[in-house]
Write a structure and sequence with these properties.
This protein starts with a helix and ends in a 31-residue tail after the last helix. By secondary structure, the chain is mainly α. It contains 27 helices and four strands. The strands form two sheets. It has a two-stranded antiparallel ribbon with strand order 1-2. A two-stranded antiparallel sheet has the order 3-4.
Length: 699
């Protein structure tokens, strides 16, 4: 009984908090499960309702009703606008939606701060609710009990609408069979808009009602979004009641768990999220995990062999007419399937082979020219920029290596990731602790940090490589958030929220002095980045890289032919982690300090955006994208103080809309990059139905 008395109030607080998360998560689940939109701006919709309700609250019932109506309507209107914004991305998958909505969240959060201020707003509730009541011998706020009742009413009414009304039937049909819905006279587009508007309304209403529990302020939207994602993952998309139970469990962990298990509570939620996702991916149907299977691969192989045999017979039959023999010494059909047999022309004159070699060398030089131009420009930068800009350039190189590691996973392995900052953080903290222990030689720091990040990726890799599509995004997000929780808790190694500063500077080589000049640090970062990128390009263009590309473009066939696809993906995950660790080591050496914000979720989104800007399979593009992000975040935002998130949000939105194939697509056009891998693996659909990020439709 004493234990119940000690934890009664936190337990009831957990119910209230869980119900708040349920209302928000119900909208998020509705948007994703029904409308198919992975909405990372859902927390901003909650903030719209919270800020609006707090602004209109005046301590009267009329003010509360007005705030509830206005906050709900504003968030619903924003949800309808989100529907219009995501329609052009319907065929591009959830990755583009995630980046767009994250950009909208950045821009929307900045606008809310400009409108309502950066301080947490006070919320005035009616006098009848601004009191406490007796609950099993304890005093408890009446407004929270009122919220519990209203949230239960929302849950019951929402379930009834979805399961017992024609509107709910139309919503369910839009997710299961939109063609059948259209045949009944309903517009799938209108239902899509209505679903997202309803999801926004739920988030806005939760924001108004939950403002006394979680006051509106900076950081609220991100916290609510992350916890709502956990609820959706744990509860699934099929049942509101499962989501309800998951929300209550999350609420209890966030309140009661903190008082009962304060050391474990920060890890429980995202560990549970990762475990559920891994369990589902491991026990999914084979077709869902490994991609769609060829309905008759034997017949397909026979057709291909017959086509090739027919082409050879045609070439043999037309050979004598051209004055050539059809035997072994005759001309061979073109290896390019796009070139017909009669386009080969007459026999090559003497010296033609040297001309062919010259054309090959010309192609190699054309491919290497952008790298050489970029390298020359990077070498010349210290003579053209001031000290601050040189420091930013060094940070861009570190972020560029992180972006290249994301390119390896997303563009070549087909594993889109939102958690690559985890090995990046391992490399960064390894370097900072090595320097603090007296290991200040740069090559030693780089090698040990890369090794630590590779070991970390080897441990987390098996949980990632079995999943596909959006599940990969969610698993890697959980890994990144767990890493952030560890960073905040293990203060003896990471410094906690204060970070690490004051450790000795890095030495470029043995016997040298610690580097403090910005130009020296930049040159060190440039040398390390050039070596790392060169090794990455050599591996990607080697037979091992071609095998990795094959696992992404034709995974089912690779498995059928006996290739250990899982092993290839694990090696790619480990190597990408080591590359991210090198980037983290560079960041610490250049900045000479380290904070949790340098390795948080926002940096992971920036790295993914850099890949989208450059093109999913372009290493150079990833470096250019990282430079553009750092330039926007630090240099441009410095000339317009206080609006960095708005500028970055605009960059996200512009990149998603204007660069669907990245900068590499602009250079190559729709017919270029024929060897680029197919689109990212998805859990349920073939990549052939979506355009390849490299600029060519998947075969």
């Amino acid at each position: 009984m004493e234990l119940l008395d000690a934890h009664l109030v936190p337990a009831v607080d957990g119910v209230a908090y869980g119900l708040l998360l349920f209302v928000v998560a119900a909208g998020l689940s509705l948007a994703f499960g029904t409308a198919g939109v992975l909405n990372l701006s859902h927390g901003t919709l909650y903030a719209i309702g919270a800020y609006t309700g707090a602004e209109l609250s005046d301590g009267t019932w009329g003010g509360l009703a007005l705030g509830l109506a206005a906050g709900t309507a504003a968030a619903a209107l924003a949800g309808a606008g989100l529907s219009a914004a995501t329609v052009p991305l319907a065929r591009r998958g959830h990755l583009a939606q995630a980046l767009l909505t994250f950009g909208l969240a950045l821009a929307g959060g900045d606008l809310l701060i400009q409108l309502f201020g950066a301080d947490e707003l006070p919320v005035r509730v009616p006098e009848a609710l601004d009191t406490s009541v007796r609950l099993l011998g304890h005093r408890y706020p009446a407004c929270r009990l009122c919220f519990i009742v209203m949230a239960v009413l929302l849950a019951v009414s929402g379930t009834w609408v979805l399961t017992r009304t024609r509107v709910g039937a139309a919503v369910r049909a839009s997710a299961d069979d939109p063609q059948m819905l259209a045949a009944t006279g309903h517009s799938p587009r209108a239902v899509h808009t209505g679903v997202l508007a309803t999801a926004g309304a739920l988030a806005g209403a939760a924001g108004v009602l939950g403002a006394p529990i979680i006051g509106p302020g900076p950081g609220t939207s991100e916290n609510v979004l992350m916890l709502s994602l956990v609820v959706v993952v744990l509860g699934g998309l099929r049942s509101l009641w499962a989501t309800f139970a998951a929300a209550i469990a999350v609420g209890e962990v966030q309140t009661l768990g903190v008082s009962v298990l304060p050391d474990l509570a920060p890890y429980l939620l995202f560990a549970a999220m990762a475990a559920v996702l891994v369990f589902r991916s491991r026990f999914a149907e084979p077709a869902a995990v490994h991609g769609p299977q060829d309905p008759d691969p034997v017949a397909r192989l026979r057709r291909r062999l017959a086509a090739r045999l027919g082409a050879r017979r045609a070439a043999t039959a037309t050979g004598p007419a051209d004055g050539t023999t059809g035997g072994a010494g005759g001309p061979k059909p073109s290896a390019d399937p796009g070139v017909s047999g009669d386009s080969a022309g007459p026999p090559a004159p003497p010296g033609a082979h040297s001309g062919l070699g010259g054309s090959v060398r010309g192609a190699v030089w054309r491919r290497a020219a952008p790298l050489l131009v970029l390298l020359v420009l990077l070498i010349a930068l210290p003579g053209m920029l001031d000290s601050y800009s040189i420091s930013l350039a060094g940070s861009a190189l570190a972020l560029g290596l992180l972006a290249v590691s994301v390119t390896v996973l997303t563009g070549y392995a087909g594993l889109p990731t939102l958690g690559q900052t985890a090995p990046f953080a391992v490399g960064a903290y390894a370097t900072a602790n090595l320097a603090d222990a007296g290991w200040t030689v740069g090559p030693v720091q780089i090698v040990l940090s890369a090794l630590a990040a590779a070991v970390f990726s080897a441990v987390t890799g098996p949980a990632v490589i079995r999943a596909r599509g959006t599940t990969v995004l969610m698993i890697t997000l959980a890994v990144g958030e767990l890493t952030s929780a560890v960073i905040n808790q293990v203060k003896s190694v990471t410094g906690g929220a204060d970070g690490l500063v004051g450790f000795p500077s890095t030495q470029a080589l043995w016997g040298g002095e610690g580097m403090t000049d910005e130009s020296d640090l930049y040159n060190y970062a440039l040398v390390v980045a050039v070596v790392a990128v060169a090794v990455t390009l050599l591996v990607l263009r080697s037979p091992a890289g071609k095998l990795l590309t094959g696992t992404r473009g034709a995974e089912a066939r690779m498995r059928a032919s006996g290739h250990p696809v899982g092993r290839y993906l694990l090696v790619a995950h480990v190597c990408a982690g080591a590359l991210a660790g090198v980037g983290g080591s560079l960041m610490v050496s250049v900045q000479q300090y380290l904070s949790p914000a340098d390795v948080g979720f926002e940096i992971a989104a920036f790295a993914l955006l850099a890949v989208v800007i450059g093109g999913a399979t372009s290493v150079i593009g990833a470096l250019l994208g990282a430079g553009l992000i750092v330039f926007t975040r630090d240099w441009v935002a410095g000339s317009w103080p206080g609006h960095g998130p708005l500028l970055l949000g605009a960059l996200f939105i512009a990149a998603v809309y204007l660069l669907p194939r990245g900068l590499a697509g602009l250079r190559g056009g729709p017919g270029r990059s024929g060897r680029a891998p197919a689109g990212p693996r998805t859990a349920t659909t073939a990549s052939a139905s979506t355009p390849s990020p490299a600029g060519k439709a998947s075969p």
